[in-house]
Every structure is written in C-alpha cells, then in structure tokens.
Amino acid sequence: MDKLKNISNKEELQTKFLKIFESTKVAYRDSSFTYRQNEYEEKLEAEMKVYLDTMKNEITKTCMEIGTKKLSEMYVEMFNKSGSRYLVGATAYSNYEADMEKLKKDFFEANKLYDQDVLFQCFDAFTKSKSDVKMVTYCIATEHKYKEQYDQMHNEINRRMGGQLEYFFLEEQRRRNQYLERELAELQLNSVELFKSAKRESLCSIM
Q1: Measured by CB atoms within 10 angstroms of the end CB, which terminus of the chain is less buried, N or C?
Q2: Is there a domain that residue 110 lies in?
C-alpha cells in the first residue's frame, strides 16, 4: 500500500485505492476456488471498506492537524500586521471581519490539495476556539453562511465519492459474473469431453 502514502484528500485516496483493489481481485480470482468466489469476494469487499474508512479518517485527522497549525500561524501574522486596525474606531470590527475573510480565502488557497469540507471543519473549530469579543462576533455573524457553504461542499463530495463506489461495485459484480460464467462453461466443456472419453474407453473394453 505504499502507493497510498502522501495522499492529502479522500477522493484521491479512494480513486487510487479502488484501482489497487481491482488489480488485487483479478489476481485473487485466478488463484482461488471458483465455487467459493462469492463468499471470499464479499468478505474481501467488507474488509476493503473498513480499511478505506480507516484511511479516510487518518487523512481527515492529518488535514485538521496541519490546518490548525497553519491557521494559527496566519492568524498571528494577521494581528502582527494589522492588529492596531481592530482596536478602536467605527471601522474596527469591519476591518477585522474583512481581514478574517481574506485569511479564510488565503487558507483555503494554500491548502487546496486537502479536502475542502475538512478545511471548513478546521476553520470553524479554530475560530470557535477563540474567546475574544471580535472573534465571537465574527462567528455569530458568519455561522449561517458558512454552514450552508459547508453543507453544500460536503454533500457534493459525498455524492461524487458515493457514486464512484456504487459504480465500482456494480462493475465488480459484472466482472465477477462474467468470470464465473466462463469458468462454468469451461467446466461443462471439460465434463462433456470427460464423458466422451469414458464412453470411448467403455466401448473399447467391450470389443
């Protein structure tokens, strides 16, 4: 599974994993007992789903860790550069909100190889971990908008990944059925040949 290392998002992981899994099953079919194919392949698919879910969780965990560290650095940098603009005056909060929006945009751009829905989770967790008045106000002001954005992005990613899995397993079932049909046809042909051979030997012994 070395080919699955250094992958930064769930969709890339699933795509590469399914390719490896497909080639593994082809090799498996060639070396297994035909009459137990369904039993073994169903078990193999169940184990694959568990492993894939584990890998997805690991990627999410890594993304959250990297994202939180990056956000902390960017937030400190934002305050060092423009903190005085947030202290007093009629535009203090609007300055802060504008810079937070820019920070969010820059954060997503800098980490675009990662899952965008996980970056949303990371950004949400980071902002809610801050207790200063301006951040609390910012969280309240943007909560509904960001929730809608997250839900839309998260649902779209799940739709694509779910569709890919569904198509993969339908194709796997089709390939499995074709393989079993070929094996059955070959078995029937061998049985006919064996019967003919036995019949010829029987006739010869009578003569």
Answers
A1: C
A2: yes
